[in-house]
Amino acid sequence: MTILKTVLQAIDKLNEVIGKIFSWAMLLLALTMTYEVISRYVFNHPTMWSYDVSYFLGSMTLMLGMAYTLRIKGHVYIDIIYDKFPKRVQALLYVVFGLLLFFPLWGMLLKVMIPHTLLSWANQEKSWVGSWQPIVYPFKTWVTAGVAMLFLQGVAEFIRDLTVLITGGERP
């Protein structure tokens, strides 16, 4: 059990560190948008790059923060009903919905995204939207990495809930 606990803690720590590091992209996003607004409305000289940079930074923060958000239970839940259930029933709900919804959805998405991202790198894909046509394979990489991290954190949470369901004890 200690090996399992160590692995679960390593997954948690990895997602926490990555989530906190990339949360700083929100500051860059705010600065980028501020620059664009000033450039556009004060100097009447809009940038060509702000749209692409804004969705790059926004997606980076979202995708690389999802796993950490799952770990701290920050996603939307119906707490008013869920909190009334005993811990084992809560764990049962997580296990069932994990098997029915979480793993099939994110597993299939990851299965599709990995070869798509590798192909994007092989072709050195560029955006066809906008005039400066930025490269998009790094964008696809962090989206894929975010999905993989979320899936991995989902496995860790599933194991924890399965442990509670079986033993009736605390989450490891």
Quaternary organization: single chain
Distance between the ends: 9 Å
Low-confidence stretches: none
Helix count from the secondary structure assignment: 6
Secondary-structure element sequence? Answer: HHHHHH
The total count of strands amounts to 0
What does the overall shape look like? Answer: elongated
Domain module count: 1
What is the CA-based Rg, rounded?
Answer: 20 Å
- Calculate the mean pLDDT score and round it: 91
Q: What structural class should be given to the helix and strand makeup?
A: mainly alpha
- Helix share of residues? over 70%
Largest sheet: none
Beta-strand residue percentage: under 5%
Structure characterization notes:
The chain is an all-alpha fold and 172 residues long. The protein has one domain. It contains 6 helices and no strands. The protein has helices at residues 2-23, 25-42, 50-71, 79-82, 87-123, 137-167. Helix 1 packs antiparallel against helix 3 (50-71) and helix 3 packs parallel to helix 6 (137-167).
What is the topological layout?
Elements: H1 2-23, H2 25-42, H3 50-71, H4 79-82, H5 87-123, H6 137-167
Helix pairs in contact: 1-3, 1-6, 2-3, 3-6, 5-6
Throw out a few tags for this protein.
mainly alpha; 6 helices
Structure, briefly:
By secondary structure, the protein is an all-alpha fold. It has six helices and no strands. It has one domain (2-167).
